[in-house]
Amino acid sequence: MTWKRSFRLLITVAVALWAGAGAAQDTAKMLAPKLDPLVAEEKTVTGKAGKGEKAGVRVRLILKGVKLDEKEGQLKDGKFAVVLGVPLAPTMVVQAQHVDANGVEGELAEAEVPIVGAKPQYDWGRVHADFTSGAVISRNRTVLSAGNTAERQADDFKKPDLYLDFILNSNWRRKKNEGSSGIKGFSWRLDTFFNASLTTVSLAPQAGESGGTNLAAERPAQTSSTDEFLDSKKSALIQAGIFAPFYSGVTSWKFKGAHNALFGGPILKMGFQTVTGKLTDQEALRFGGDDLYHFWAVGARFGHYSFDKDSDVAPELNSYMDLSVGRWENFTVCKEGTSGASCARERRNRFAAEGRLKVPATPFQIGFDLNSGRGPDDLRFLFGLKFDIGKLFAKLPNLGGD
Q1: Residue ending a domain, choose from 85, 112, 139
Q2: Which of 38, 76, 128, 202 has the fewest other C-beta atoms within 10 Å?
């Protein structure tokens, strides 16, 4: 072999090595595309191109290591939509990567189709309804004495009363994809709620009376526990409110595939409550039989959200605590220097705290209510079962459906 032929061979090898290195370098530069959240039963896989990439995208569908389908698509405005021949199903894996005109493949993006149950017929997405049934115990409770009179006595949390609660939460503002891609940076939501409850209410006792309202004509000598509840100071409560929870990536985490966040923000609520039956309080006797008590409060709510992968589904409120200041008509007291028949009623600002906690992996909920200020204070504890109405009705397929 002459030196000329050897030189030509050396040049050929150098060019080949240079071309291979360039191709490898191009591959390294082709970043992985970004897949959008995968939805079971869909055939279209969408996403965004890797930063600065213009090459087409190849998508593969894999189940337990076996390739089920493979399709390619082109970019349009930095996005791609590839239609597969097989619908997506839970536990399937989708792979996507850029492929240039020479067939060189870029970095691989991979995601698993999530296991998400079918949305129930009664699921309203960003409107969420819950029902809770349980018992409430309080320190002070109206009971019947031996003389069949109603007296407000210190009961020391011994006897429970029935507690029923319905709450409807509506989400007006949210940031998309927080449940699928996670919470990044600072974010906030705007929610309203409507609440109707059957519970007990604390009332300022009638001053200057040793006994109470005679109920002999209203109650037989022997009663069941339900009758005893009906004779107690149960009340119906209606309230509505608005709150704006704030949270960020610092207060969020991912647990068992779901994104969670701790939040805090302002809250405003107002409503009214009324005592059922013929039991009377200080205000009702002294001011014309008033038995409808309005209230308002403003403060802050702190709590814990669990986000759904679908941004059009309201997050689950696992726990919260409300700290507020407001005025409650049922806590009316006499002004300084007035009493008895000359009592001039006065409603002062009071402090309220309300807390609820859903026990993880169970339907049980526990909570407390505190109302403190001048005059009588109120502390009560609640125990109950909380049900998502949409999920509950979904288990009754013949209820109002075809």
Answers
A1: 112
A2: 76
* pLDDT tens by residue, 374-392: 777 888 899 999 888 766 6
**Within a domain: residue 119?**
no
The predicted pLDDT at position 230 comes to 31
The token pair at 176 is: 């998309």
Domain extent for 385: 127-394
Confidence grade of residue 296 (pLDDT, cut at 50, 70, 90): very high
Q: Is the pTM of this model over 0.85?
A: no
Considering the domain architecture, whether residues 97 and 142 belong to the same structural domain is answered as no
Nearest to 311 by CA among 181, 140, 164: 181
Q: pLDDT at residue 28 above 70?
A: no
Distance (Å, whole) CA 327 – CA 301? 18
